[in-house]
Design brief:
Layout (H helix, E strand, L loop, with lengths): L5 H5 L5 H31 L6 H11 L3 H14 L3 H20 L4 E2 L4 E2 L1 H26 L3 H11 L9 H4 L2 H11 L2 H17 L3 H16 L1 H4 L3 H6 L19 E2 L4 H14 L10 H11 L8 H32 L2 H9 L15 H36 L19 H4 L7 H14 L1
Antiparallel strand pairs: 1-2, 2-3
Helix pairs in contact: 5-17, 6-16, 7-18, 9-10, 9-18, 10-18, 14-16, 14-17, 15-16
């Protein structure tokens, strides 16, 4: 008789649905256990005193402790035959546990390594405000080319003399003269980039800063608004996508080890929100432009009714952004997200190492113009070369008479390609040779 596995013995009296649920729960526990084992193994390999960045941070933090604290740790190390760094980390983890329990009691069950419905409800309150402005954020960050369009729009509103095309920087005479120096595309591109650099650098710093400030709320609130709430709430047994209006969510406990990446994203969202100086004052002109471009209303009203609707939408968007800024700050202050990460990662000096870049409109505007202008040079290079040849021929035959071929007639009314008739394309070359022979031989 074949011996049954432990899982088969446990699930023998269960129906198919309960057996599948049991299997999923066991599988989640195994995955979480393996993840924890990998973290512990990696920590042991680096070890206190090693060359890892974490070990160096522990040693620096230990060195900053008071003399009596270090003396006590030294004594414990001698009594327990443990490394001083290990004892120090254990003490810090205990302190983190006390801090979490004091700042936000009831959000986690330490013994079970779970986050409670209280934590999920705090995130859900943030989700409600994010949902109100999400269509505008999706338009900017998910719409193809929309962010680029808005950056150019904001900057060009401040520029009196706009330059967007190749002809705005170099006339055809300039292009021909530059091409004559070496006959290479790189020569044209080098001169073009030189003039483009001068043009972009001539934009006043105050105008660039004002344009950047207009987009800052949508940049620094982006991590919160585009947080994957649906995936997060699924771990708590709740589907926010099928939520009825006014329905209060019902949450379950969830494994914190499976949610660490979500907690880290929330921590980043809170840190980015701190770049916005309260009270938040969104740029009125930009909000009105965004509303017009985003076109959230499928049916456009007419006349005064449309103006009233746009005004209401503008006020709602401005107030929602201001309230969201306050809510994120309150949420980040109320929940010790970083402490939770440090405690469950067992890294008391863990920091969110993601660098948050600023908005550099000047560099972005330069690259945007550069890409379009370089493409225009590539497209028009043949035209520039033909113009250069014509210019040189005009100089060569400047002191001579020009003669047409005596027996050649070009009938523009005939479409040779459509009729299938042959068309001789070397007429110009023969005409040049004919004029050279008549004038110089």
């Amino acid at each position: 008789m074949i011996e049954k596995t432990i899982f088969e013995k446990l699930s023998g009296e269960l129906d198919d649905q309960d057996r599948e649920a049991l299997y999923q729960n066991l599988r989640r526990g195994v995955v979480a256990s393996e993840a924890e084992t990998r973290e512990d193994t990696g920590r042991d390999k680096a070890g206190p005193g090693g060359d890892s960045g974490e070990s160096k941070m522990v040693q620096k933090a230990l060195a900053r402790e008071s003399f009596f604290a270090r003396a006590w740790i030294w004594l414990l190390a001698r009594l327990t035959v443990q490394k001083e760094e290990s004892i120090f980390i254990t003490q810090k983890l205990k302190q983190l546990r006390r801090d979490i329990s004091q700042k936000a009691p009831g959000i986690t069950v330490f013994e079970m390594r779970q986050l409670t419905p209280a934590f999920a409800k705090e995130v859900f309150s943030l989700f409600r405000f994010c949902a109100m402005v999400k269509p505008y954020f999706d338009y900017i960050w998910l719409g193809p080319g929309k962010f680029e369009e808005l950056v150019v729009y904001l900057l060009t509103q401040k520029i009196s003399l706009k330059k967007e095309k190749l002809d705005d920087f170099l006339s055809m005479e300039d292009l021909v003269a530059i091409f004559s120096r070496g006959g290479q595309k790189d020569t044209l591109k080098k001169e073009l980039l030189s003039r483009l650099t001068g043009y972009v650098e001539s934009i006043p710093d105050a105008d660039v800063a004002e344009a950047e400030a207009a987009l800052e709320p949508f940049y620094y609130l982006r991590e919160a608004v585009q947080f994957p709430f649906a995936g997060f709430f699924q771990f708590f047994g709740y589907d926010c996508r099928n939520q009825a209006i006014g329905e209060e969510p019902g949450f379950q406990n969830a494994s914190v080890m499976l949610l660490l990446r979500f907690v880290e994203k929330l921590c980043i969202a809170g840190e980015m929100n701190e770049f916005l100086t309260p009270p938040l004052e969104p740029n009125e002109g930009f909000l009105r432009c965004l509303i017009k471009r985003q076109g959230s209303s499928p049916v456009q009203a007419a006349g005064e009714e449309e103006n009233i609707k746009n005004e209401e939408e503008f006020k709602a968007l401005r107030e929602n952004l201001q309230e969201l800024n306050r809510r994120i700050a309150k949420f980040y202050k109320k929940l010790p997200l970083l402490d939770i990460l440090r405690f469950y990662k067992r890294e008391p000096f863990f920091v969110v190492t993601r660098k948050i870049p600023g908005l550099h409109f000047r560099d972005f505007y330069f690259m945007n113009l550069k890409n379009s202008l370089v493409k225009e040079v590539e497209t028009r290079f043949t035209e520039i070369r033909i113009e250069y040849l014509q210019h040189e021929l005009d100089k060569f035959f400047a002191q001579t008479d020009k003669y047409a071929l005596e027996y050649y007639r070009n009938y523009s009314s005939i479409d040779y390609e459509k009729t299938g008739a042959p068309f001789f394309k070397y007429i110009q070359s023969i005409n040049l040779l004919y004029n050279y022979i008549r004038n110089f031989l």
